[in-house]
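Hi there, hope your week has been kind to you so far. Do you reckon you could talk me through the fold, stretch by stretch? Thanks so much in advance, here it is.
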Amino acid sequence: MAGPAAPSPDPDADVARRVADAMRAVPRAAFLPREVRGHAGEDRALPLWHGQTGSQPSTVAAMLRLLDVPPGARVLDVGAGSGWTTALLAQLAGPTGAVLGLELDESLAAWGASNVAARGFEWAVVEPADPGALGRPTIGGWDRVLVSASADRMPEALVAQLADGGRLVVPVRTTMHLVVRRGTAVSVTTHGEYVFVPLR
């Protein structure tokens, strides 16, 4: 006589576990200015410089769960800041993936690049963003795009850079949006209220 069927795996629980593991593997403190590292464990945004902030951990975790980065993904990180989100994305994508962090502030981009390099993630880089352009198109499109700044409206330029099956997580004004591309069809869902620095 057959026993009860085994429960189906919960994909959301698996994603949450992978994100939690990544955040343990890539400590926030190493991506903060020395004078605020003592606050790394606090669940709040912390200052970097030039008016930029490092997002609070619970917000980063929520965004990464929505993004659902699979191993081997090609990922674009818009507003990379200190490089922490880029490094987390690199941890999730693994060495078969490719992660590009873009940061408009050149000095912050240089610091973020050195922070990511120090972790040994050879498949991830942080570079200065192209002035006047949003994102950076790549052949075949990005599998995942993360935006850590608030857009006034849906950034269609980034939607256009998604690969088939790609996912974009972006705060629009104060609402978190998840955009999923399936062929020529694009779906958009909303996921709570957050506060970010403006997307420039």
